[in-house]
């Protein structure tokens, strides 16, 4: 069938070069703003419907589906339009901007509706999914509908000549995608960290209004293009099907690559953003490459066929390229000072870490195959619209099917292929789809070549010899098809997931089981008596036969410090991990426990392999398991539901984890707690920096002013907060009664918290030695509070470089120094026990020996010796001793103050031991304290600056400055 076009004998109107340049610039901005919106909306929606992969896929699906409907509607309108498409485009951009400005209010309304309906469907997974999808789809339908109409409108308003159809379509599509790349990077790296998600939406909305206003001002009087009246043939069925499969494959590969990078790259916000930006940049490059090839006369379908046949070859060939750009930091100790040495240096240390290295890793794996994928959609539009008159509806129709395929691809890859056949199997299935699409495109090209009429006069130009080019392209297509098939068989052999995880197990380790599901790739591996549970590259839990489990200790704490008689009756545990903490808590007379975990894969492995460590929690009838996001579950739980809430998620800097440390989440936890309830939050010192610790503590203490910090494990601290009017008191009888439960665990008998500890772990002094800080100390911490709208914990709080250089025990010592300790003389009022505070202080110092904490008793003894020492060398030596004790505990200011006293007591003191001691004091924490040391030296009296001690410390500072300059000199800009 054919569809008549308006009769006109006027020649085609030709848009000016200025019109095209302006439209291209506006479409670039439109792409940037559109992807910025997508990032904001996905992150914002995750706070309501749960930060699960299912929820995120739902947001993306509704996003693509709305765009598909918009493109289809634009195609229908273009058949009978009376106004300039360019002017309508301007109005659409204004509409998108108005939605963005009102988005915070609209999202607040969605939260209220969702909260009201959640209680009706929460028990039914299918109904809950439908509710989430329906609400998000309705919220995002207006802007995505409008976004989907922009490309067809611009094409119809700017293309007048038949031979420009393919090249200009590719060019415009590429410009829009390049804008999307810019939008992703600016939004992720600058906008959200600076002004938050709501602020970013409002800012982008204002810019969208400017884009629309400029388009209206420039094009509102532009008449629609006129074209010669002739019939437009109906689009063959091949093109909608190919467009659908092309979109499905494109998003399928993107999801597969995201899962691939999750195996070895930490799930922080930068890696995620760079994955999307690099993928979009490659699509734009493919589209621009197609535009250049079409201008040289190459047929679109044949280019499409060859590109699709090349995709599997490139996918499997590039899969392991990430190792070429892997950035590893090694710690060395020249002259006793910790320094970070990167495996390669380029722009600067921070830029390489958060941008250059992950970008190069991502680009080396996916850029080349994604360029070939990027040829797909614009090539189909070009081939289907053989004449400019066909652009009216065909481009919109194909865009509809392409975005519909992308919408389906997110579910097909994430929730069908990967769970069913694993990541390797999913890549093979997608490769087979690409091969089939390539063969079909070449077959369609051959069919159309045999049936196409003789070229018109304006198409006879053949600057490169079209026949020769087509022949070469056909032979290249056959060769690439054979190579791709061989690549699927050779490069895709075996299981790349198992290979990567095997390398993570360490020497002598073996993989016990791998589970690839819709949420994560989880694994269990054994190394001797040690059993580890991982999610990608994140190790969630470690259990060692015969040893005390730090996670088990954590599980006992909420029951031991429960402020009422008996044990907490109803408990909520978030993030199961190996289940050791939750199983330990169940050893107390708990009546009910709700366990919430987002990953069924983690739960399955914990129940199957960690039963001997988690007290067979999977078989305990008191446990009710909920597969949900913990943040989402708490936000929807009824008021006063639980006596205790335990939180042990992934490390805080991992993407999505920041929401468990915000003011809003902590307030939700307080709401669901019953009166006198207790909340326990994990604070891993080896994964957070000093500034991050301060903000986490300040946020926690703001909501739970009655709180304590308790040590658990080697470098873990648990924050305990109570929903009480005043700080609870714990009697000796109650504490000993609950410690008796801990004593029943054979792994705790005759054990001490550290080699230097004198008290057994199950003793009352042994327990109290773990208490570090009381409410006064924690409430005194002054730092910015973490909030939902600005995910600052994901981006860092100004000292994220420490995590890069010192992750592990060294970082734990630095971060521990930022935690204010409470003297037991003040803590004693909360514990009605007959133990001298000095004894507890001394025991705590032994327990914290790995943090270099000096015992207050030791400090008091040293101060007494200083007071009794004779003036001169002896008094100076006593001052040096005090300087060392304070420096060990992280108080550089107090240490320098005592060194000043030492200089005043004996300015001429000089001996090799003294020289070495003051040099060690200068080196310790010099990366953090160099400016303090510099100011201290500058503030000394001129006479004291020339003393041997001051010169030795100045020499250490000079050596540090020289090392810093040498390290920075290896970079371009640092």
Layout of helices and strands, plus pairs?
Elements: E1 2-3, H1 17-49, H2 53-78, H3 85-121, H4 125-158, H5 165-219, E2 232-233, H6 238-262, H7 269-295, H8 300-318, E3 329-332, E4 339-342, H9 349-374, H10 376-384, H11 391-451, H12 466-490, H13 496-504, E5 510-516, E6 521-527, E7 530-535, E8 538-544, H14 550-560, E9 570-574, H15 580-585, E10 592-597, H16 600-609, E11 623-627, H17 630-636, E12 642-647, H18 663-672, E13 673-684, H19 690-703, E14 707-712, E15 716-722, E16 730-731, H20 732-743, H21 764-768, E17 771-773, H22 775-779, H23 792-795, H24 801-806, H25 809-816, H26 824-827, E18 831-832, H27 837-847, H28 856-868, H29 873-888, H30 892-905, H31 912-923, H32 926-938, H33 942-945, H34 948-969
Parallel strand pairs: 9-10, 9-12, 10-11, 12-13, 16-18
Antiparallel strand pairs: 1-2, 3-4, 5-6, 6-7, 7-8, 13-15, 14-15, 14-17
Helix pairs in contact: 1-2, 1-3, 1-4, 1-5, 2-4, 2-11, 3-4, 3-5, 4-11, 5-7, 5-10, 6-9, 6-10, 6-11, 7-9, 8-9, 8-10, 8-11, 8-12, 10-11, 11-12, 14-20, 18-19, 28-29, 29-30, 29-31, 31-34, 32-34
CATH topology of the largest domain: Rossmann fold
Q: Low-confidence segments, ≥5 residues, pLDDT <50?
A: 1-12, 227-231, 454-464
Distance between the termini: 66 Å
CATH class of the largest domain: Alpha Beta
Give the biggest beta sheet: 8 strands, mixed
- Basic shape: globular
Say which CATH homologous superfamily of the largest domain is assigned. Vaccinia Virus protein VP39
Number of helices: 34
Average pLDDT, rounded to a whole number, is: 84
> How many beta-strand runs?
18
What is the alpha-carbon Rg in Å?
33 Å
Strand content: 5-15%
- Return the domain count: 4
User: What oligomeric assembly is this protein in?
Assistant: single chain
- What would you call the structural class? alpha/beta
């Amino acid at each position: 069938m054919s569809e008549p076009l308006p009769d006109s004998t006027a020649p085609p109107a030709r848009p000016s070069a200025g019109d095209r340049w302006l439209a291209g610039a506006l479409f670039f901005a439109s792409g940037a703003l559109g992807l910025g919106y997508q990032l904001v909306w996905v992150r914002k929606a995750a706070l309501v419907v749960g930060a699960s992969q299912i929820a995120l896929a739902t947001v993306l699906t509704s996003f693509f589906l709305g765009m598909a409907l918009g493109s289809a509607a634009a195609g229908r309108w273009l058949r009978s339009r009376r106004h300039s498409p360019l002017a309508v485009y301007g109005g659409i951009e204004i509409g998108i901007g108005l939605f963005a400005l009102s988005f915070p209010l609209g999202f607040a309304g969605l939260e209220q509706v969702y909260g009201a309906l959640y209680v009706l469907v929460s028990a039914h997974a299918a109904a809950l999914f439908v509710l989430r999808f329906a609400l998000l789809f309705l919220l995002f339908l207006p802007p995505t509908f409008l976004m989907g109409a922009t490309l067809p409108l611009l094409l119809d308003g700017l293309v007048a000549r038949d031979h420009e159809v393919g090249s200009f379509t590719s060019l415009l599509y590429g410009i829009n995608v390049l804008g999307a790349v810019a939008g992703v990077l600016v939004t992720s790296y600058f906008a959200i960290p600076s002004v938050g998600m709501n602020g970013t939406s409002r800012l982008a909305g204002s810019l969208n209004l400017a884009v629309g206003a400029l388009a209206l001002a420039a094009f509102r009087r532009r008449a629609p293009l006129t074209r010669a009246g002739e019939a437009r043939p109906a689009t063959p069925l091949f093109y909608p099907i190919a467009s659908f499969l092309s979109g499905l494959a494109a998003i399928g590969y993107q999801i597969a690559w995201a899962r691939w990078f999750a195996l070895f790259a930490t799930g922080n916000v930068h890696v995620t953003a760079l994955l999307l930006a690099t993928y979009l940049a490659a699509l734009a490059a493919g589209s621009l490459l197609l535009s250049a090839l079409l201008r040289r006369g190459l047929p679109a379908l044949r280019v499409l066929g060859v590109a699709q046949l090349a995709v599997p070859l490139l996918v499997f060939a590039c899969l392991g390229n990430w190792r070429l750009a892997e950035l590893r930091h090694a710690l060395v100790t020249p002259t006793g000072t910790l320094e970070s040495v990167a495996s390669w240096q380029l722009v600067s240390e921070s830029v390489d870490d958060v941008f250059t290295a992950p970008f190069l890793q991502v680009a080396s794996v996916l850029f080349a195959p994604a360029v070939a994928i990027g040829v797909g959609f614009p090539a189909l539009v070009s081939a289907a619209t053989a004449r400019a008159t066909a652009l009216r509806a065909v481009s919109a129709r194909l865009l509809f099917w392409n975005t519909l395929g992308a919408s389906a691809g997110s579910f097909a890859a994430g929730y069908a292929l990967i769970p069913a056949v694993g990541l390797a199997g999913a890549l093979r299935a997608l490769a087979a789809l690409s091969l089939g699409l390539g063969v079909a495109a070449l077959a369609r090209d051959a069919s159309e070549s045999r049936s196409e009429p003789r070229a018109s006069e304006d198409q006879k130009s053949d600057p490169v010899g079209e026949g020769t080019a087509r022949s070469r392209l056909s032979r290249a297509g056959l060769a690439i098809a054979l190579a791709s098939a061989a690549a699927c068989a050779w490069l895709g052999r075996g299981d790349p997931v198992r290979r990567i995880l095997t390398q993570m197990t360490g020497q002598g380790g073996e993989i016990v089981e791998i589970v690839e599901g819709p949420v994560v790739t989880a694994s269990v591996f054994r190394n001797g008596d040690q059993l580890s549970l991982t999610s990608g590259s994140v190790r969630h839990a470690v259990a060692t036969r015969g040893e005390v489990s730090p996670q088990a200790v954590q599980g006992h704490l909420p029951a031991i410090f429960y402020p009422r008689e008996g044990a907490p009756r109803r408990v909520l545990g978030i993030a199961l991990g190996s289940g050791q903490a939750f199983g330990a808590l169940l050893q107390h007379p708990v009546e009910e426990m709700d366990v919430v975990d987002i990953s069924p894969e983690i739960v399955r492995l914990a129940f199957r392999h960690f039963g001997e460590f988690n007290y067979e929690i999977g078989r305990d009838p008191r446990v009710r398991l909920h597969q949900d996001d913990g943040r989402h579950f708490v936000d929807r739980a009824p008021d006063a539901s639980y006596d205790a809430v335990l939180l042990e998620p992934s490390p805080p800097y991992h993407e999505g984890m920041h929401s468990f440390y915000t003011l809003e989440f902590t307030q939700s936890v307080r709401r669901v707690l019953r009166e006198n309830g207790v909340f326990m939050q994990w604070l891993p010192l080896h994964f957070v920096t000093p500034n991050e610790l301060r903000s986490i503590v300040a946020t926690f203490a703001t909501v739970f002013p009655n709180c304590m910090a308790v040590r658990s494990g080697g470098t873990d601290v648990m924050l305990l907060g109570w929903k009480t009017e005043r700080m609870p008191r714990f009697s000796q009888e109650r504490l000993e009664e609950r410690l008796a439960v801990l004593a029943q665990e054979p792994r705790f008998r005759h054990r001490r918290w550290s080699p230097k500890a004198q008290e057994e772990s199950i003793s009352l002094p042994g327990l109290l030695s773990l208490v570090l800080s009381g409410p006064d100390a924690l409430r005194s911490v002054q730092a910015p509070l973490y909030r939902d709208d600005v995910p600052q914990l994901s981006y860092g709080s100004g000292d994220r470089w420490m995590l890069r250089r010192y992750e592990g025990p060294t970082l734990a010592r630095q971060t521990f120094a930022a935690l204010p300790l409470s003297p037991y003389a003040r803590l004693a009022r909360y514990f009605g026990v007959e133990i001298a505070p000095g004894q507890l202080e001394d025991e705590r110092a032994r327990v914290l020996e790995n943090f270099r904490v000096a015992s207050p008793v030791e400090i008091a003894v040293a101060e007494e010796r200083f007071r009794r020492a004779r003036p001169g060398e002896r008094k100076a030596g006593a001052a040096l001793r005090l300087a060392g004790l304070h420096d060990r505990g992280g108080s550089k200011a107090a240490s320098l103050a005592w060194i000043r006293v030492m200089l005043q007591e004996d300015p001429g003191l000089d001996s090799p031991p003294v020289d070495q001691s003051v040099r060690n004091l200068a080196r310790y924490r010099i990366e953090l304290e160099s400016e303090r040391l510099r100011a201290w030296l500058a503030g000394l009296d001129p006479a004291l600056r020339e003393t041997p001690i001051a010169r030795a410390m100045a020499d250490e500072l000079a050596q540090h400055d020289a090392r810093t300059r040498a390290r920075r000199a290896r970079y371009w800009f640092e």
